[in-house]
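sorry for the late reply, my laptop died twice this morning and i had to redo everyting from scratch. anyway the thing you sent over, i finally got around to it. pasting the sequence first so we're on the same page, its 331 residues, then the predicted structure underneath. double check i copied it right bc i was rushing
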Amino acid sequence: MVNSGGLRLSSRIESWPIAGSFAISRGSKTRAVVVVAELTDGRATGRGECVPYARYGENPEAVLERIESLRGAIAAGLNRLDLQAALPPGAARNALDCAFWDFEAKAANERVYELAGLPPPKPLVTAFTISIGAPDEMAAAARAAAARPLLKIKLGNQGDPARIAAVRAAAPKAELIVDANEGWNAQNLAENLAACASAGVTLVEQPLPDGGDDILSKIHRPLPVCADESAHDRASLAALVGKYDAVNIKLDKTGGLTEALAMAAEAKRLGFSIMAGCMVSTSLSMAPAHLVGQQARVIDLDGPLLLAKDHEDGLRYDGSLVYPPEHSLWG
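ok and here's the structure:
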């Protein structure tokens, strides 16, 4: 973790085309815009990638500026531990935190999991996302992916019971999880949860808006409910007890792997099960999240599968099985 000074920072915005489009209840997009941070001492280079998310008031230009604001401090010796106080949780800290981890591993000729005191990572089964659309469109997408063991179904608009029923009919053997992206309300919550339970859904993510989810502690939940937009870092967890059964840990929310690992430990202490999630991004974002996924019951690290192309040394996917990163990519 030591930075004795002289580390050089470079950062940039990258745009990666999505295969088709990616649609959730808040809108759709055709490109994944990411910000990359690199740290080098001239011998070893570490990289980290983040996805600025408008839902949290972020945009690529502002995140890039925030990263660049630490250029002098990093050159003067700011290290990964210092970074946790220098920047708040969010995308900018994520890119730098993961770049520090990668640099430390490469400088020491070790792997990140060794530096973190973790066991060697194993391949994981990841969910594959079906974007929200008309029931027949979603059924067609689910039918094409029906051989995958785990499908993540985007809901969050009027008519969701018909959507999930159509998906279940099209993919009768797959495990289904649902992400409503804060799109339900107190009036349709019970109907939508019942429709998901009837379809055999095993988890529902963030059915209600952050800050408007207290009703979850007052109703019978017919299936486990997972916090996403309501869960950010360790500090956010205590308020979720009694409302949620699981939390989705994403590095762009926690502000990097350092906080994500600490959040996972605290979540388990509080009795939550863990989901390891991602934004739509490249294998460079997925690689550190793969370590968090080692502790998760549900893994959603399909970002590169949704892109038209990925890094040449990107993660290896065998169907829905995603393997740990090679040293050349990250870690």
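The chain has a mean pLDDT of 95.
thats about all i looked at so far, will dig more tmrw
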